[in-house]
Amino acid sequence: MKNGTIVAPQPEAVEAGAEVLERGGNAVDAALACAFTQGVVDPQMAGIGGFGSMHVYMPKKGVHEILEFYARAPLKATPDMWVDKIRHQSRDGFGYVLEDNISDIGYLAVCTPGSLKGYETALRDYGTFDWADLIAPAIRYARDGFMIRNHMHWYWTKDQSDDGFANTLDKLRFSSTGRRVYFHEDGQVRNVGDTLVNTDMARTLERIARSGGADIFYHGEIADEIADDFKANGGLIGREDLARYELSRVAPIWGEYRGNRIASSPPPGSGFPMLELLHIMEEFDVGAMRHGSTEHVRILFEAMKRMTIDKDAHMGDPAYVEVPYGKLLSRDHAAEHARSIRAEKIANVSRLDRSQRDTTHISVVDKDGNAVALTHTLGSPSGAITDGLGFMYNGTMSRFNPVPGKPGSIAPGKRRPSSAAPTIVFKGDEPSIVIGAPGGSYIAPSVAQCLMNMIDFDMPVLEAVSAPRVVGVSNTIDICNRIRRSVERELRALGYKVARSPQTYAFAAVHAIKIEDGVSRGAADPQRDGVAISVA
């Protein structure tokens, strides 16, 4: 490799990771410096109150695996705890709305966080830098402040009432820390360009840095503070949840698209739906289609719906339910779906009674050929912040199915299905693309489209992540505002319901690196505030 590259949605975090690469750190070191900083400069998207998965490829060490540090349901949770409080499922299938939003905002919304244990394990097993050194940029931004960016403010003020979920502004107001950190004294939310300071978070990160690892969070004094706070506020997380938290290490699952070998995250991650979509689309001559044409959008939509139906029927924590992803990724299964699409059969996605989601991503390669795709998140922010700790907890309980007996139903200690699909594409034995995205249910279809853009349409990486996208995870075709209106009219004439997004760049936020002739080039999706930095 002639250079290293890092790309993510937050420029401050990318710079922190790039500086680690410049100082001789490897891709894992850079990803961790970036991840810690993301938790400060985009605190509703990720942080030590969240969870995620890291796809690691280190050829000289013989390492290629997925480090899973997903959130786990509280040990006191039960399958039927909320069955009498169901209102409906979100249109995109990402979550479930309950009475009073009890699973979406506040202490009952929180699952046991895994991010800090994941970061510590990644550094110990794959990294080379000092723990405190990697946390230092995050501490600096929390203590000294950073400038509020456009996407952060857009997310804070976005009206989510159509889906029935609590608005982020209400979550920011939920705690005394939130009201102090995110609002002016007159009650107005801080604006784009304002400086945001979080001294409580800086002190917490300093404590973690001094402790040398995650033990303080899961077994030590911070664990005690978390457990006492949850007990006082009616939450379900206790000392036992933190002490018994375990992550996992698994092999990636594999697919193939037009001769490219593709590795991604197994269940409960969403690598298999993304790969299934690619396998269905390989049955069609995508490169011969006009990008964004009626034919292209219709076939994509029908393939996405079939992928979604399979995901909804089978996705869950494989420690609790069997997920037959081998069958779902088979060529026979893809060919069967393709025959149905050619026959113009319209698939139906059913939901309970009737989006931009809260995650972030990092793609990194270094000069030694190591590659990392890291997707981490709060699932959605809960609004809960323990006094004095500064960080917000995840709100992941709303993503479990409140109906017992389903693959994604609640169970104590269970990992909820994740939409993350951190992915590495290989040409022969060498990585050619490192890719992933935030965006909930939109991640798998968006990552797949960007891969098709590079493979079928031969687009450069920036053009591939910027090209107009569509998603089909319900019975409505969601299109970005750059899909031609003539295409929308033709789709409606075929009987489809179409929803046009007002966003120029919509549906997940893909951040990718493409490697050609030993040179890596990164691209940040323009819908977020990110950047790609290459290091010679």
TrEMBL record:
It catalyses: an N-terminal (5-L-glutamyl)-[peptide] + an alpha-amino acid = 5-L-glutamyl amino acid + an N-terminal L-alpha-aminoacyl-[peptide]; glutathione + H2O = L-cysteinylglycine + L-glutamate; an S-substituted glutathione + H2O = an S-substituted L-cysteinylglycine + L-glutamate. Gene3D superfamilies: 1.10.246.130, 3.60.20.40. Cleaved by autocatalysis into a large and a small subunit. Keywords: Acyltransferase, Glutathione biosynthesis, Hydrolase, Transferase, Zymogen. Its EC number is 2.3.2.2, 3.4.19.13. It comes from the Bacteria. L-glutamate binds at residues 418-419, 440. One of its GO terms (molecular function) is glutathione hydrolase activity. Coiled coil: none annotated. The keyword Magnesium does not apply. The active site is at residue 359. Pfam families: G_glu_transpept. Pathway: Sulfur metabolism; glutathione metabolism. GO terms for biological process: glutathione biosynthetic process; glutathione catabolic process. This enzyme consists of two polypeptide chains, which are synthesized in precursor form from a single polypeptide. Belongs to the gamma-glutamyltransferase family. This is Glutathione hydrolase proenzyme. It comes from Phyllobacterium leguminum.
